[in-house]
């Protein structure tokens, strides 16, 4: 039996860690994220969860303190201190004091900001009993314009990463709410309990999690590379950029070579908030066949049949063949390469397609 410290779990984007962390927690396996922050400790996740916690429990003043100026609405620390002092003086929940802010000697601009905040919270609270947990978080994110806030506050790449994290959280909530129609209150309770258990568990033996970027220079006996799906690894930004695609391929090589003894590669058939069937990464079928052992025979046979891991499609087409494509329509094959095909489509002209993904049909 190997110690947990022998295992390294790698992922391409930070949003992937949520599902991995949840699975490890459910199994009672200790883990540590290196070079990053645990999913539920990330600022954007704390922001959304604080809103949800407060909506479920309006007496949760700590959550209220976090969200009162997120996104920024002109309610600063000085105003918050006045409100908190008043709350302690009257022994009232903070939100009750905020609702009666007209009694305080504040700047008219701040009174207006507090009015708007109270209206927002009351609007959100009115929806809690009407909407499912997933519908509620979707409504919340839209109502507070949270994505716009992230795009204004961070550079485009960082903002997109944070948006992906929020979408991952929404995906978890949707899955949770679909299981026995569980409520927002149930979800908030589950997250709170999980957080308490995580803090209690302090074993020195743990599985290491990190992004591929952070793994350079490290080696572990066993490496698990997750998310080998098109648009995840390689990342969707490399789709139409050969230079970035080559960088993704190099990153995959970095991931593979972190292992001293064994590498496990996984992919998901589906991900919440990503529509349709996910195609396995092209990097999987670029691996040498004699170096790969498949686990889960029926699944693998489907992959091999659908994506032709062992047999290239190159021999199926010849220059001059008439073919049909779902999007581009009818065309004539101009040239066939090792893993690509050039077709002159009658409507859109010349296109070079990857054989494994082109899904071309020969027209007899």
Q: Outline the low-pLDDT stretches.
A: 297-314
**Tally of separate helices:** 14
Oligomer classification: single chain
**What is the arithmetic mean of pLDDT?**
83
Q: Looking at the structure, what is the overall shape?
A: elongated
**Approximate helicity band:** 40-55%
Strand order of the largest sheet: 2-3-1-4-5
* CATH architectural label of the largest domain: Orthogonal Bundle
N-end to C-end Cα span: 58 Å
Instruction: State Rg.
Output: 26 Å
> Which sequence of SSEs, written as H and E, runs from N to C?
EHEHHHHHHHHHEEHEHHEEEEHE
CATH class of the largest domain: Mainly Alpha
Which range does the strand content fall in?
5-15%
CATH H level, superfamily name of the largest domain: PCRA, domain 4
The CATH topology assignment of the largest domain is: PCRA, domain 4
- Structural class of the helix and strand makeup? alpha/beta
Summarize the structure.
The protein has 364 residues and is an alpha/beta fold. Helices cover 45% and strands 14% of the residues.
Describe this protein's structure.
The protein is of the alpha/beta class. It folds into three domains: 132 residues, 3-Layer(aba) Sandwich (Rossmann fold), CATH 3.40.50.300; 139 residues, PCRA, domain 4 (Orthogonal Bundle), CATH 1.10.486; 49 residues, SH3 type barrels (Roll), CATH 2.30.30. 45% of the residues lie in helices and 14% in strands. It contains 14 helices and ten strands. The strands form two sheets. The chain has a five-stranded parallel beta sheet, covered by helices on one side. The protein has a five-stranded antiparallel beta sheet with strand order 9-8-7-6-10. Helix 2 packs across helix 3. The longest helix is centred in the middle third of the chain and has 23 residues. It is elongated and about 80 Å long. It starts with 6 loop residues before the first strand and ends with a strand. One of its GO terms (cellular component) is cytosol. One of its GO terms (molecular function) is hydrolase activity. Pfam families: UvrD_C. This is ATP-dependent DNA helicase PcrA. Keywords: ATP-binding, Helicase, Hydrolase, Nucleotide-binding.
């Amino acid at each position: 039996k190997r110690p947990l410290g022998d295992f390294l779990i790698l992922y391409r984007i930070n949003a992937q860690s949520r599902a991995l962390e949840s699975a490890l927690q459910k199994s009672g396996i200790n883990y540590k994220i290196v070079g990053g922050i645990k999913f539920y400790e990330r600022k954007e996740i704390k922001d959304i969860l604080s809103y949800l916690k407060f909506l479920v429990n309006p007496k949760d003043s700590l959550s209220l303190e976090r969200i009162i100026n997120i996104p920024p609405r002109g309610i600063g620390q000085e105003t918050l201190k006045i409100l908190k002092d008043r709350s302690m003086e009257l022994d009232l929940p903070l939100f009750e004091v905020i609702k009666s802010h007209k009694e305080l000697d504040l700047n008219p601009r701040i009174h207006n900001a507090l009015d708007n905040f109270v209206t927002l919270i009351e609007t959100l609270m009115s929806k809690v009993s009407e909407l499912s947990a997933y519908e509620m978080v979707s409504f919340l994110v839209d109502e507070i314009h949270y994505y716009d806030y992230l795009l204004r506050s961070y550079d485009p790449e960082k903002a997109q990463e944070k948006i992906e994290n929020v979408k991952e959280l929404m995906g978890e909530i949707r899955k949770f709410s679909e299981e026995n129609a569980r409520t927002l209150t149930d979800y908030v309770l589950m997250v709170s309990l999980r957080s308490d258990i995580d803090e209690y568990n302090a074993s020195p033996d743990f599985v290491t999690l990190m992004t591929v970027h952070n793994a350079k220079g490290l080696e572990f006996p066993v490496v698990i590379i997750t998310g080998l799906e098109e648009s995840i690894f390689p990342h969707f930004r490399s789709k139409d950029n050969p230079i970035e695609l080559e960088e993704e391929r190099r990153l995959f090589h970095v991931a593979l070579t972190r292992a001293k003894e064994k590498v496990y590669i996984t992919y998901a058939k589906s991900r919440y908030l990503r529509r349709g069937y996910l195609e396995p990464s092209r990097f999987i079928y670029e691996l040498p066949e004699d170096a790969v052992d498949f686990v889960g025979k029926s699944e693998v046979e489907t992959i091999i049949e659908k994506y032709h891991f062992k047999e290239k499609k190159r021999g199926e087409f010849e220059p001059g063949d008439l073919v049909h494509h779902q999007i581009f329509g009818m065309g004539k094959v101009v040239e066939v390469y090792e893993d690509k095909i050039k077709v002159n489509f009658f409507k859109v002209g010349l296109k070079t397609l990857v054989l494994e993904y082109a899904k071309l049909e020969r027209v007899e």
